[in-house]
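Q: what sequence does this backbone want?
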């Protein structure tokens, strides 16, 4: 019977080790996922501020002014909407739950149905085209194309390079 005791001890050690690994994985993976989503959220806030600053600078720098901007997207999608002159970042996440709505600087941050949105509105500027930027490296050209008398707004053309 001496051979049975080491076998039982080995099985117990393996079982305890596997239980510990399973416990760590069940808590660790969601924590890492939340950390990554929070990092993407903070990256998007910074990028949205940079995009807004660059658009406003070019819009008021005069006709013909232009600037290229790099946008590195870890996750989510950016939308430039010409119909309502907004720029919106969207990402699927439950980081804030539902019904989250806050304004931070010029950014409106809200979530609905596990979709986080960060948005700003260009009230005195007309975006002339719709574009969408997806995950990965992106570059846009922001160009002032002049004053639009009928809209009473400065027009800015944004082109994906």
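A:
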């Amino acid at each position: 019977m001496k051979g049975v005791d080491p076998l039982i001890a080995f099985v117990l050690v393996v079982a305890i080790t596997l239980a510990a690994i399973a416990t760590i994985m069940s808590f660790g993976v969601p924590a890492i996922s939340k950390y990554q989503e929070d990092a993407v959220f903070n990256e998007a806030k910074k990028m949205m501020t940079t995009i807004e600053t660059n658009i406003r600078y070019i819009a008021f720098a005069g006709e013909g002014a232009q600037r290229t901007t790099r946008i590195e997207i870890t996750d989510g999608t950016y939308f430039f909407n010409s119909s309502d002159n907004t720029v919106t970042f969207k990402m699927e996440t439950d980081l804030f739950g539902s019904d989250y709505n806050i304004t931070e600087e010029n950014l409106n941050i809200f979530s609905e149905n596990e979709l986080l949105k960060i948005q700003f509105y260009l009230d005195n500027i007309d975006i002339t085209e719709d574009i969408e930027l997806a995950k990965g490296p992106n570059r846009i050209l922001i160009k002032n194309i002049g004053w639009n008398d009928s809209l009473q707004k400065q027009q800015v053309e944004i082109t994906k390079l």
